[in-house]
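Practice set, problem 2.
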Amino acid sequence: MTFLRNNTQRSRSTRLAALLGGGVLIAGYALGIAPAAAADDPVKPAPSSVGLPATLTVGDTPESIVLNNTGTRGYVTLNKTVGEIAVVDMIARTVTGHIDIGAADPGYLAINGANDTLYVSTTDWVSGMGARMQVIDLASGSVTGTVFIPSEAQGVAVSADDASVYVVGIDGTLSVIAADTLAVRAVIPLPGQNAHSVQVSPDGTRAYVGLDGAFKDTPMIAEIDLSIPAVTRTLPLPDGDSEEVGGTDLTPDGTTLYVATGYGAKIRTVDVASMSITASVSAGPGVYRVAAIPENNVVLTPSLSWEYLLSVDTATNTRSNSARTMGAGAFDVAVDPTRSYAVVTDRWADTLSFLDFPAITNPAPVTVEDAEEATFSSDASNIYPSTVTLTWEVSSDEGASWAAVPDADEETLSFIAASADNGNLYRIGYHDTFTGARGYSTPALLTVGGRAAPPVITSGPLPNGVAGAEYGPFTVTASGDPVITFSAEGLPAGLRIDPATGVISGNSTEVGIFTVRVTAVNAAGSDTATYRVELTTAAVSPAPSPSTVAPTTPGGGDGGGTGLAGTGANAPTGLLGLAGALALLGAGLLIARRRRPLGHTA
């Protein structure tokens, strides 16, 4: 979205006063004096309902801001003697660099959908360069093109297809510029001077421009048919010259336009199809920018006079009684596309003010026994008590339906669990009425009974093995519940443990003694056992001893073979030794019998 600035707040107000006939009011802005509140302005929020966002100093007089489509990077115009664009890391909240555009007064910004090109309007009357639109390549941070425009720009927008750039000028013209060639395709006259802000429909066929009539004509919204191109419809604002068009925002579907009316203090809702005002809310004095969060039915707008960020509920058409304190000169506003923060430029404080949206962490599952206390916890951040509520909910049907837990509006939920609660899901939700943000945590399971037991390794020592051979397999066992996962450190190369079954197997060629640490883990804890495993080389069987007499085959030998072989003359010496041993044994027995003592009977 493009947020555009009212010329009454520009540093060159003296020249514009002469041009527009509004010198007193414009000069007051140049001195930092905001306009007085209109008669029907709402009551200023009480201090007790005001939050204090974080701030970041960015440089001299920050005014307009745009974000990339992920909300990670922001670009801010700094209205110094030599203008610059501050580059801001929106996540780290730091200024990462500056882009020198060589112009005394940078104005409005627009970024293309590809997030690689920035368009900035500049005005340099001192050097005689006049009004220009400059093109910045964001990869290199340098100006790559310049387009001269008829008058000082007060709004820049890029078509959804990145093909065209639209610039509205103080002289009441809309310039259409080709993004690829930077050629001016058309300059469309508008019904009045002092054009403010431009929004382009998603299909690129229509543009909507605010005109405040140079403080003498009726302020209005003009619709331009870009195919003609010409103004086809106008919508006068009902309060006439008591209000002006400061900034606008078009919803992504192109159906609704929100209009901030500056010192008119109102936020107007315009139905684009009928070009009619469907709602008006008195927000506060000096509302010159507006940022819609249509999915939350919320519009945010800074009040320059009060230096607050205000919130309008577009469903009920009411302004929140709470507010967020901004720095001096609160002016432009942008909302992170991922909806995690909003940011405001503080012109006179030289800062950005950040409003972080609420956030919560997910509670962990809980297991208790029957009649024990169950406690679910979440860390909630950016909680403003005046606008943010927390709620715990329970589901007994696996998340198909949810019911609020009575009196549970804190970050912690505690209660005595019963067996009937087993299997219930619990979640925490938040709702911020200021930003419209709401959300829920991931559900957490409650288990009653069957408390998870940590593992205990129950298997005995690991067996030794042989290098080069298949090991085991050996299964490591452990008690405990729920499911256990196994791991091992120090196994010889080639062996592994199955994480699910605990089976150790494989083939290792390493030889030696190894110290192995086996660990079993589940949700309730862990257990570790240390083992000694030895892998040895394979056992080798000894070779047989040679015979003292070589065996002979029939008919062999030096003498050519005789009948001695048949009579056993060449029998193996082992047989002869056996016969001799038997003979000696027999003789020994005989001697033993003869030596028995006299009178011993057998």
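Problem 2, part (b): a different protein.
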Amino acid sequence: MANRQRITNFFKPSSSSGRSDTSHTHPSVSEEGADAVVPVAQPPAEKRRKTRAFRPDWIDTFPWVRCDIVDGEERLFCAQCEKSGRKNGFTRGSANMRLSSITEHSQCNDHVSAGNLKHLQMAMKGQCEKATDSSKKKICSQMKVVFHMAKHDIPGHQYVGMTELLRAVQAPDFTTSEGIYRHSDSICDMEMALEDVELKGLDEKIGASDFIGIIIDETVNITVDKKLIMYVKVQVNGKVETCFVGNYDVHSGTAQCIFDKVAEVLRGRNVELSRVVGLGSDGASVMMGRHAGVGALLKKESVYSIQVHCVAHRTALAAVDAAKAVNQVGAYKRTISAVYSFYKHSASRTNRLRQLTATLTEEDMTSLKQPCAVRWLSLHRAVESIKKNWPALVMELNEEAVGGNAQAQGILGQIQPYSFIALTHTLADVLPVMTKLNLVFQRDDVNLATIRPMVKASVSALTQLRDAPGPEEKKYQTDSKEGMYNGIQVTHAGDRSVQAFKNARASYIQHLIDALHDRFPDDSLDLLNCFDVLLNPSRYPPQTAALREYAEPAIQTMLGHFGQEIAREDESAATTFIDAASAQRDAIPMMTALRSYGGLNFATACEMLIREYAEIFPEWVKLAKVACVIPVSSVPAERGFSLQNRIKTAQRSRLGEGRVTRLMRIASSRDTLDTFDFKSAAARFTAAKYRKK
């Protein structure tokens, strides 16, 4: 029985889930009941499929793998194979979400070769970047050579020699000729790239300045072309700078032609003429003419603009006026010109004069100078050379005269009299006063506050010299005894000659004082003086109560010019440069605020006002901006012409307007080899076009 029971249990159906389902079973067949229902065996239940999903931690091991949803299903992709353009299951999208499939793919040939290609590409990229950096560095170094050449007026054809020199001394970027440009067109392209950087900086400065002043002058270059040079004076946050704009050809020197060129250039730099508030020039009638001069034409476009006759020119003209008024001074200038010409063309005479000077003074001879009409106060240097060389000159000319040289005899008769040597020492006292005044007016930082005090100081010094001898004249009187000076006989030293000299001396100094007054009249500098009165705290009276009385006349003059109403062409309401009522109300508070900082000078006070009080005193800030850019000197234009003449010489006379202007712009740049942006210039150069090496 037991065996039969075990066999029966063996054939009983079992549930795959481990539980019995009584609803689908039949009673088992028993040996006692033949009528019992025998159960039928059911098929086992189907196994459920196990689903697999992407695991984010796989990315830690295989950073190139990613999972995207495609048609509602997750697919595995290989970024590395895709990037290299391979075609395999992982570029089409693998549905096999197993770690083993990713591992197998990482070991397949496609994936390994794609990885090797990536490393090669990275290495190639590194080498290319290294080569590019080296090439850029070489171009920057060549740019520096071109920049240096332009700064020192070295002709472009010297560039190849400069690079060969650098190569010979093993300069880092010039050890080989590879990457070194040698063609003349490439040199021009480098200059253009440097100029582009300068022009970008110029436009930024002009754009940041609410108002500008312009300095213009005309001349003729070595090829007899009429040229117009132009500078602008700008201020940015109170900092003032004078910048070179260009040197242009003009077909004539008429006021209309010059004005048209100025307007064309300014509009080309996006500058409206209404922003021009100051015009500086050399005072020529074509510039300063009241009815048809350039300043008058500008005033039609910019009503509030101010014309200024260069103060350095005024000083030189004052000296010329005084010299013309006194015959003895004119004769003196002709004499020293004759001395200069006599020795200039003879090496033997100059050598004898040099030997005599060394014997007498044990010092080297001071070279003789010639008074030049186009060089300001060149008479001063000529007088100094005559004063130091006079004993040797007399001895050498005497030897020439004894030998029968009539010209030497004539010159000797002019330089040996008492009047000549006495006037030499008088001029040695007087001319330094005028020279110092002129040099101050030639400084880059000269402003309108400098004019009046320097002129007054010069007049005071000349008045003292008129009333009493100066140190050089006293020294001459002390060293001159019994008609002898430094062991040399002085002729015509009688009382009559002495008195004639004293009269000429007093007349010359008085004419010089009068000429300064005539060239610097108060009415012509009225507005400039008003700026100085109101915006120069160093001149304010110490008592607060006296401040209004001190400032009131200047305030009224300023309001009369800048507060006047100007009708518009469209017949709308008239406009003013400033709100007169607001400016008058804020004048004394503004001056009080500036005085609280101590004795600020004019430039510092304007800078402080512009930077700190723009919202508090807006009208006076506007006037301070105007005061900063008014050009009181045209010296930059004179220096520009000197630069032009150093660039365009007889040997380089074929240089065109564009090339000369380009070289002048680079040469006049305030940047140095350490501060110039050569990387930007190199980028412009390489991006320009294909060029010859």
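Answer key, part (b): Residues 133-250+263-284+636-693 form one domain. DSSP finds 28 helices and ten strands in the chain.
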